[in-house]
User: What shape does this take?
Amino acid sequence: MITREAILELDRLDPLALQRDAFALPRDKVYLDGNSLGALPRAAAVRVQDTVQQQWGVDLISSWNRHGWIDLPQAVGEKIAPLVGAAPGQVICADSISVNLFKLLSVVSMLRPERPVVLSAADNFPTDLYMVQGLSQLLGEQKLRLVQVAEAEITDALNERVAAVLLSHVNFRTGRILPMAEITAATQTAGALSIWDLAHSAGAMPVELDACQVDFAVGCGYKYFNGGPGAPAWVYAAERHQDAVQQPLCGWMGHRDPFVFDPDYEAAAGMLQYLCGTPPVLSMAALDAALDLFADIDMQALRAKSLALGTLFLELLHKTELAAELRLLSPPESELRGSQLAFSHPQAYGLVQAWIERGVVADFREPDVLRVGFSPLYNSYGDIWQALEALREVMAQREHLDPRWQQRQKVT
Amino acid sequence: MITREAILELDRLDPLALQRDAFALPRDKVYLDGNSLGALPRAAAVRVQDTVQQQWGVDLISSWNRHGWIDLPQAVGEKIAPLVGAAPGQVICADSISVNLFKLLSVVSMLRPERPVVLSAADNFPTDLYMVQGLSQLLGEQKLRLVQVAEAEITDALNERVAAVLLSHVNFRTGRILPMAEITAATQTAGALSIWDLAHSAGAMPVELDACQVDFAVGCGYKYFNGGPGAPAWVYAAERHQDAVQQPLCGWMGHRDPFVFDPDYEAAAGMLQYLCGTPPVLSMAALDAALDLFADIDMQALRAKSLALGTLFLELLHKTELAAELRLLSPPESELRGSQLAFSHPQAYGLVQAWIERGVVADFREPDVLRVGFSPLYNSYGDIWQALEALREVMAQREHLDPRWQQRQKVT
Assistant: This one.
């Protein structure tokens, strides 16, 4: 029998528990949606305030030099690099995941000109698939086209027409982890290149891009990195590929000498060529400050807590009658899961809304998915206890069947 | 003889003078660099603070609906539209100018598949030229290539191979205005499409995109719109072109129903298809608040003051011995200039640095250009007086020759 006291003891013993104070979390909420938007680090609020009032307001244009705005994309990239197992000089912060994927897809198309296929999983996050479709429409299907197969059939689908394999490390719905080392090796054995989307893994578990010999990767700043809504994304290119070809979104920030105003583009060396236009400094500054919270974090300890939170959730769930109603979509084996759990339920949307009214924030994903995310830097074991108590109440009172939930909000 | 008293009287009579209080300008500076980075509107600081503390920190993920984050790109676009002479539904806020140009260049290439040339001016802002070069490299020169001619020779260079003419409305160095209506008409008569970059005109003068029957345009948020460092950019597509073809940077935010998570891209109708990835909300919120300052501004009055500031600058300059040293690169006729003046000087870099030390902020552009920008919402006639007094001191004391200016900063 797991008691509330036993759970509070887990929190007392948790080596990451002190991290929670670094976040400005509302006291009346249990926030289990850090896999969608990470909570506000207090340091990010301070940094944005300073960036607006002092840097923009007082130091104005001189801040590009004085406060290092011009170096932010690299500085942020170098803070992310160790968190995804990348040696320095291989990660830079820029644009969105979608835009960065377009750069990488163009690059793999140039590196593998005779191979027209980008292989991906049918339930990959849609924007990843869309970006392949967009480039395909631009270049023509004979040059580049998307082939989607089930996640489990990726390596079987490899052949000599495949230029690249584009996969999410952790599935956005189910939370299933794909075996990065194994798929990357199989991809390269087949002569193709790997592109990994780390949106749902970076910052939530150890990632080993260099050790897995990954070719390219992207990730976002606003989920487990807590960089703020729509925080800029990042891109990784293994050093061996960086200067091989020039990515086509070659804006002035990627020029080797932007302030010479040369009418001819000449790419900067290394990751700088992945920059395009002027970066959104306020948003990037927030991410830069948020990343400092990871400076002293042991990612193995973070992963251990993430799994413990998920396991506790399932254990508490199985001690109730709710378990029968919620069908687990995530792998039952914890080591195969990222930092989230997904369940299907016919009234999943209503469940999420009613749960929110009881102070527990998770999210809904079409068509019938309830998603629960765990952010080990700020979620406690007590949060899980409270979440289950609230869920029990919701279902006992049939609050999830409230007719109000027939009407969906714009963002679900 | 223009006296200081006469100038202060101009400020007392200035109908826009009260706008200055809406900005958090440092008292010890004359800021003549709003053409590079607009000053901080007090309302933007308040808005960013609220977006961070309340929306991100407390309301968290619900803010996408509750605080309209999801609608920000359209809302900001609709605030910009009347300022550039566009009827509603034709402007959306997204990405950077560079990324938006890539979308538009791809679109014109699809709309004019038999015409391979994008015609531009050799001294257009480099990123505009680079984006053509990048797409050209991706598609091949037989499909798309850049042809650069002198600004004055654009219409003569039109022929049946030209798909699009890409020009800056106001030249970033000289400030020369190109005749938008005339060039657009000639472009269309030749069967080509027009793309205008309004970085240096939008927010500084009336612009008439619809009346000039412009096809496409882009602009930034961080110059005369005062949206903050690296504020998101915007894109205009005339209604007649919006649904003709699909732009290739087709991320999930441009899908007709992003939260259905359809694996196949289907473009939203109208300008929404110009969205790509998740937008940087903090930066976009600052721009949204900054644009409210234009709600009641008469753009003709703004233009009148802009020209008056420039004319006063030249008049005061010509009453000194400095005029002989500084060569005006801008058109001498005020109606041919945007809201800036450019001069060449062998020690332009040193002049700018020494001027800054005396509290006057202008900027340097390679190779030898001193640029002075006028933002009629916050610059006063008194600013111009002070700027000239300081410049006189700089040159009298030969401060611009200080050996410190041999060493240039990273951003010039």
In short: The first strand of chain B starts at residue 30 and ends at 31. The longest helix of chain B spans residues 299-318. Residues 198 and 219 of chain B are 5 Å apart (CA to CA). The two ends of chain B are 36 Å apart (CA to CA).
